[in-house]
Amino acid sequence: MMTSTAPAPTEKSLAEMPAVDSPAPTGPSLAERLAHLLSTSVSAQTVYGPPIAQDGVTVIPVARAMYGFGGGSGTGPGPQGDTGGGGGVRITPVGFIELRDGRSRFRPIRRSVVPLVVVSGVVALLLLRAVPRLLKNR
Predict the structure, then answer these.
(1) What is d(CA 66, CA 56) in angstroms, rounded to the nearest whole number?
(2) Superkingdom of this entry's organism (predicted)?
(3) Nearest by Cα to 91 from 21, 38, 36
């Protein structure tokens, strides 16, 4: 029986190992091509329009973009198999940049508090209606 005296591979020694020969890439991967396409085509300007200038004030829209992609494959009985994938983009306005007199200022778009006020009002109404019944049962 022969035993090896070489140390067990570590992260450093694995990183120093030569790469397995593989064919040279022929170009950007699908993911890289999608990322480039999305980064050049989906922007605040594409969705909300170009900056607007009037009376010495320029307004530039600002948006948050989120991307998601997924894919998978599987095999069934026999030689059949199936693959699939999908993706989506969500763009949300977050504010605008106001340029005036050589100065810039970011103006966030605030969410409305109306839904919170309505829900709070309904809860308060229900509680007020329940108080006489609670006091009557004491």
Answers:
(1) 33
(2) Bacteria
(3) 38
DSSP string, 2-23: ----SPPP-HHHHHHSPPPP-P
Rounded distance, CA 64 to CA 96, Å?
11
Q: Show Cβ contacts of residue 129 under 8 Å, excluding neighbours closer than 6 positions.
A: none
Burial tier of 44 (Cβ tally within 10 Å: 0-12, 13-18, 19+)? buried
Ordered per-residue pLDDT tens for the chain, 138 residues:
443 344 443 443 444 444 445 455 577 887 778 777 777 777 777 777 888 999 999 999 988 888 787 877 777 766 666 777 777 788 888 899 999 999 999 999 887 777 778 888 888 888 888 887 777 776
Residues making up the chain, counted from first to last: 138
The answer to whether the beta carbons of residues 48 and 63 sit under 8 Å apart is: yes
* Most distant pair of Cα atoms in the chain: their distance: 90
Structure tokens at 40: 């050049």
Short-list 64, 59, 66, CA closest to 106? 59
